[in-house]
């Protein structure tokens, strides 16, 4: 499983970008007729107030050509060279252990996709949000926006449901707060692996597992980060009209270079050549948000159990 999902987006996929939020740039919107998500511009700040500004802030345009092509004192990236699929089949990352994803659920919600009598709700989409333990304000913001059932104008008891994916902590005070939050809102899924940046892959697999086991009858599942907003009208139009099997929608990143340098703003994404010798990644979905039909969610979860974690 590729933890690089969501780190980079290509310039050609971005058109007009407008700042959103109480201070300019808390979110950026890809102003395309088909845009479905809003992604926060400054991923370290808290959520804005969600007010969309009408003016176009060209300065917030992403320029992915700014990614480091040269490592400072490191090797050059051979982005010109054609790579076959055999190139991706070499490297120490293949020696990484697989994870059968056998973890204890510390919190799990009830009656999300079933009623109290165990009858299935009609669920056109289940949204699972990858969230950090301390991001209560972000979760509260989501609960009153797209995470609220009332936000989705669907008739005949059709529901779009939202749950949050969390790892665990060694801090008993923080854990008690999470337990209280889970009790109040009934939307927390928590497993007993440490909640950390390097465990984001496990957290996504955890979402796939929960959907497979607890909401497989839903039509679609959406994975979304807690610092990303979505366009409800566009997504609603899509999920009500699209076929129910074999569907995935998201931004596909092509020919994305592997970062070799530990310096600069991209340094935390550095991968050594021994670990992964190819100079580019194979195509992958950008990670802030994507939608999959639940048959593919289950298939991806099953494949993840026998795939080495990356990195």
From TrEMBL:
Keywords: Glycosyltransferase, Golgi apparatus, Membrane, Signal-anchor, Transferase, Transmembrane, Transmembrane helix. It is found in: Golgi apparatus membrane. GO terms for molecular function: glycosyltransferase activity; hexosyltransferase activity. It is a single-pass type II membrane protein. One of its GO terms (cellular component) is Golgi membrane. The keyword Transferase applies. Its EC number is 2.4.1.-. It comes from the Eukaryota. Pfam families: Galactosyl_T. GO terms for biological process: protein O-linked glycosylation. Belongs to the glycosyltransferase 31 family. This is Hexosyltransferase. It comes from Strongylocentrotus purpuratus (Purple sea urchin).
